[in-house]
Design a protein that fits this description.
By secondary structure, the chain is an alpha/beta fold. It is built from 20 helices and 32 strands. The strands form eight sheets. Strands 12-17-16-15-13-14 form a six-stranded mixed beta sheet, with helices on both faces. A five-stranded parallel beta sheet has the order 4-3-2-1-11. A four-stranded antiparallel beta sheet has the order 21-20-23-24, with no helix packed on it. α19 links the parallel β15 and β16.
């Protein structure tokens, strides 16, 4: 989710909210069936829906921002949800104020005739990060570096307790994107660049929700952003992900499958497009794939004003609303224009352009989660959890996570771990700055430098770890250093940003401030240790030879002591890169298995215990097994190796008569190999490597035959996925009906007069008058005999025209 670019005014709690927080309206003397917890969830929802008017149903599908809605609005419009955008908080910004605000809005909802409680949503993406004093955990990129799903689940539980202590019952997290381009400003929200890593960290969903939704401190989780937001062309935020359906499924879908297996309650749609079609209006991906194929039973929520972008024009239109709802969006996040959304959806429903059955399905999904959360029985804040916000126990957990996320990338002369008892010089603008080390989505949407919330800075941690017998001197810009110091620690990198403002299309290098600080330190002749605080790998290859050590600290959050724990060896470094580290900016995008030569490969990370006397290699990995084979990729899995000092990474090699070529690395026993030639046999094997650098014997080999090649005949079968008075969505299936493979295909069809194409996917379109030619995209032209692929398009038509395209032909 994103916030509006305008700054939300911090509003004092209005008397209406305060008064409303005092008492829960009594239940009717004769309780309706939907209020009976002894009945099944389905029976309760059926009973409740039988009592609801259209306006009450539309209200449930509406989410408004707290700065643009009052408690009386919640009652009058029967709203289903309220949210806080990034930085939108009550005044004062304390846990108790949040709880009071939540109870005020909730009591306003309970004052409606049916007393349906609201869901209150926040982006608690690395802790309850809108609340001053909350525990701020490392951003997801750091958690990905830990490779520790059990830790992620424990963090989810801690966050759920802090969120519950403020009343909030819905978290817009986790982000399960697979970030494939470091230029993207949301890279730090990703657990890693391969689908296996974010999928493994979906354990955090169980942490948020608990084993059952009505358990203690259970908070509804949100898998976001569906689908492919991490794969946009050029790393452009809200851009276009240009992939075949097979590649989209292989790379970007697995984390969502893992979340659905864990019962995630909601899914948020991505702002981005897939091959030119906006996800917010994509019925095939939202309904056919997500709800039908994957069996997702929760509800789909739009992103901040996300439906407004469907028709390409500014603002929310009737076309936007009906396209989104008909595509499968169940709740619309309309922060300020929520009244307009209700009016438009009412008109579209009454006109029959949005079927009543679609409205009922959306409302049923929303009410089901409210019942399962136990909101009808316990709607107000459980204040027994309020004291957990920023608790010592949670901060200790965050410190553990920070230490496990540190990735040591260089350690010349074993300058690390730092010695106690000498002289240490610390420099850099991020050494003593909680805001910088926490990054975006911290107290405000974009985040900011400075003392934004209580925490321990990296400098604080160094001083704590060094002890009284060590001299620690700090200078932000490095001035004052001389040759008397034993080591210099430079804490540098990026300053806070979030999506949009975080995109870096022009470069990912260090800025002049950091380069000047480094130059000052190096001029002293003292060994330099660089601690890089950043939301992604940076372009540092040119400077790296001048550094004695490099530690990727990512965005650790409020507990900078965890960084110092690794610098001094209190905790041994175990973190591994969740992203491939570029040799230069021109390599972007760079990912494991793409054949490019990185500065540091995916999964790389040094330890202090290299075990130089250890010469025993790991056991051979199991013979790999191939799955999800496409014309250009395959997923390989294998049985893990064993080793006395621990396996640190696996290397997948392609075996050829001329030798072996490394094609992928992984810290886990699986990898996706991409960039393969179509219609070709490829033979792969796997090696394991331990912390001492010993290499295992080679695994057995597997031969994978990629799809594609040949020529043949084809047929086309169009299907109307959705239609309304002024538009429709068509999904067409192309099937190879010949005995030979098809190396390319072309479909032609005729548009009725006055119809206009507005979007398409999985195909390249051209028009000649009303005649349209759809040629295969580069990724889906090869079809084996009897194999099929699909493409789709969206079009508008004059109001009242029920016509559809005709005269389809495939060659």
């Amino acid at each position: 989710m994103r916030n509006s670019r305008k700054q939300w005014a911090i509003r004092a709690a209005v008397p209406l909210l305060v008064a409303a927080a005092l008492v829960v309206p009594p239940a009717p003397a004769t309780a309706a069936a939907y209020r009976d917890p002894a009945l099944s969830t389905a029976d309760r929802v059926d009973d409740l829906m039988s009592r609801m008017s259209l306006d009450e149903k539309l209200g449930q599908m509406t989410q408004a921002e707290r700065g643009s809605v009052s408690a009386s609005d919640v009652t009058a419009y029967r709203l289903g949800s309220v949210l806080s955008g990034g930085g939108s908080a009550p005044s004062p910004n304390t846990a108790t104020s949040w709880a009071d605000m939540y109870d005020g809005f909730q009591n306003a909802a309970l004052a409606t005739p049916l007393g349906i409680p609201i869901l209150y949503g926040v982006d608690a993406v690395h802790g309850h990060n809108n609340v001053v004093g909350a525990t701020i955990f490392p951003h997801n990129i750091g958690l990905g570096a830990t490779r520790d799903p059990e830790l992620a689940e424990r963090i989810g539980r801690a966050v759920a307790e802090e969120v519950s202590g403020t009343g909030v019952d819905w978290n817009f997290a986790p982000c399960l994107c697979v970030a494939r381009d470091d230029r993207w400003g949301r890279t730090y929200e990703s657990f890693g660049e391969t689908p296996e890593l974010p999928a493994s960290m979906a354990t955090i969903v169980t942490g948020f929700q608990g084993t059952t939704l009505d358990g203690p401190a259970s908070v509804l989780a949100t898998a976001k952003h569906y689908l492919g937001d991490g794969g946009t062309e050029g790393g452009v935020d809200q851009g276009d992900t240009r992939l075949s359906e097979a590649e989209l499924r292989a790379i970007h879908l697995p984390p969502f499958e893992a979340a659905i297996e864990r019962g995630v309650g909601s899914v948020m749609v991505s702002f981005s497009s897939w091959n030119g079609a906006k996800l917010h209006g994509h019925q095939y991906l939202l309904s056919t794939v997500l709800k039908e194929e994957l069996g997702f039973t929760g509800f789909v929520v739009s992103d901040w004003n996300g439906v407004d972008q469907i028709d390409g024009a500014a603002g929310m239109s009737a076309l936007d609303v009906r396209s989104a709802v008909n595509a499968g969006v169940d709740m619309v996040m309309a922060p300020t224009e929520w009244r307009r959304f209700i009016d438009l959806l009412r008109a579209e429903t009454q006109a029959g352009r949005v079927p009543q059955a679609r409205i009922d399905d959306a409302v049923r999904r929303i009410l089901t989660k409210k019942v399962e959360l136990g909101l009808f029985e316990s709607p107000l804040t459980d204040r027994s959890y309020t004291a957990t916000v920023g608790s010592a126990e949670h901060r200790a957990l965050a410190r553990e996570a920070v230490a496990k996320s540190q990735v040591v990338l260089k350690n010349s002369g074993n300058v690390l771990p730092l010695d106690r008892g000498g002289r240490i010089f610390v420099a850099g603008r991020s050494a003593d700055d909680v805001g910088n080390q926490s990054g975006g989505w911290t107290i405000s949407w974009q985040g900011s430098s400075g003392d934004v919330t209580p925490g321990t800075t990296v400098l604080d941690g160094i001083r704590n770890s060094a002890g009284s017998g060590t001299t620690v001197t700090y200078s932000r810009d490095g001035n004052g250093i001389d040759g008397s110091y034993d080591v210099a620690v430079a804490v540098i990198g990026e300053t806070p940003y979030a999506e949009g403002q975080g995109d870096r299309p022009g470069g990912l290098g260090l800025d002049a401030t950091d380069l000047d600080t480094l130059a000052t330190l190096r001029a002293s002749g003292v060994p330099v240790v660089v601690v890089l605080v950043s939301g992604r790998p940076l372009d540092i290859a040119a400077q790296l030879p001048g550094w004695n050590a490099l530690v990727a600290a990512w965005l650790p959050g409020t507990e900078g002591q965890g960084v110092a724990d690794v610098l001094f060896g209190t905790v041994q470094p175990t973190g591994k890169l969740p992203m491939t580290w570029m040799s230069g900016f021109s390599q972007q995008p760079i990912n494991s298995g793409d054949g490019k030569s990185p500065l540091f490969p995916y999964g790389f990370g040094l330890t202090y215990e290299a075990a130089q006397d250890d010469t025993s290699p790991p056991s051979a990995p199991g013979t790999p097994v191939a799955s999800q084979v496409t014309s250009s990729s395959a997923r390989l899995t294998w049985a893990a190796s064993s080793d006395d000092v621990g396996v640190t990474r696996y290397e997948v090699v392609r075996v050829e008569s001329s030798g072996e070529t490394a094609v992928a690395t992984s810290a886990t026993a699986s990898a996706t190999v991409t960039g393969l030639a179509a219609a070709t046999d490829h033979t792969f094997a796997v090696y394991a490597e331990d912390a001492a650098g010993n290499r295992s014997p080679r695994s057995g080999t597997v031969t994978v035959a990629t799809t594609g090649g040949g020529s043949g005949a084809c047929s086309v079968t169009p299907a109307t996925q959705s239609q309304w008075g002024t538009g429709y969505v068509i999904q067409a299936t192309v099937t190879n009906t010949g005995a030979d493979s098809v190396a390319g295909w072309s479909v032609t069809f005729t548009l009725p007069s006055g119809h206009t194409l507005t979007g398409h996917w999985n195909v390249e379109l051209s028009t000649d008058g009303r005649r349209v030619t759809a040629r295969n995209a580069p990724h889906n032209g090869t079809l084996a005999p009897a194999a099929a692929t699909s493409f789709g398009f969206q079009a508008t038509r004059p109001d009242g025209d029920a016509g559809l395209p005709s005269a389809y032909d495939c060659t």
